[in-house]
Structures are given as structure tokens and as C-alpha cells.
Design brief:
Distance between the termini: 61 Å
CATH topology: SH3 type barrels
CATH class: Mainly Beta
Shape: elongated
Number of strands: 7
Radius of gyration: 18 Å
Helix content: 10-25%
Length: 106
């Protein structure tokens, strides 16, 4: 028989939002100026690169369009689409099984 929850040893791991991994990933995207596609909760998709972020929002910089400040709670997904600029031809695709594949644009 399994002991009740109150007597079981509970894990001391922090909740997913407090691991620091989100900030590290966003810093990496920002530092490398990786082009991203952001899908919002309402289904709208916007593209650009993350210039700035903090605990509650990020700034998406877009070429030829107004820059956007987006609250993080409005974001459903962030997908890398490659590096900015004409000299960076690599991109990252997500395969049907969830694995990442490196590819090139022509």
C-alpha cells in the first residue's frame, strides 16, 4: 500500500518557471540575434529577433515593421528560424517527432 501524500518525501526541485533556463535561453537568442517566430495565445504569429527581455515581457525587433513589446503570458511558443543577416544561412526545423534538425536555406 502506498503511503498518503502527506507522509511521502516530496521533491525539493523548484517549479519549472524558477529554474533560470528561460532567461538563459532568451539571453542566448538575444546575444546571437537569432530570428524567431512567436506564436501568441490568440493564434497570431509575429517574426523578428529578441532585443530585450525581463521577467514579464520581451521586445521583438522587426525589420521594416514596428517593434513589439509582448507580455510573456501572451506567448504560446517561440521557434528559432535562423540567424539574422545575409551571411547567416543556417536554420533550425522541428521534425514531426519533436526532434530538432539542422538545415540550410537556399
Amino acid at each position: 500500500m502506498t503511503p498518503p501524500l502527506s507522509t511521502r518525501h516530496r521533491s525539493k526541485l523548484p517549479p519549472p518557471g524558477q529554474t533560470g533556463q528561460e532567461a538563459l535561453y532568451l539571453r542566448s537568442l538575444s546575444d546571437r540575434q537569432v530570428s524567431v517566430q512567436i506564436k501568441l495565445r490568440d493564434g497570431e504569429i509575429v517574426r523578428g529577433w529578441i532585443e530585450y527581455f525581463d521577467d514579464g515581457m520581451l521586445r521583438l525587433t522587426r525589420d521594416g515593421k514596428p517593434n513589439l513589446f509582448i507580455y510573456k503570458h501572451q506567448i504560446r511558443t517561440i521557434t528559432e528560424t535562423g540567424r539574422r543577416g545575409p551571411h547567416h544561412a543556417s536554420s533550425i526545423e522541428t521534425g514531426g517527432n519533436g526532434s530538432a534538425k539542422n538545415g540550410t536555406r537556399s
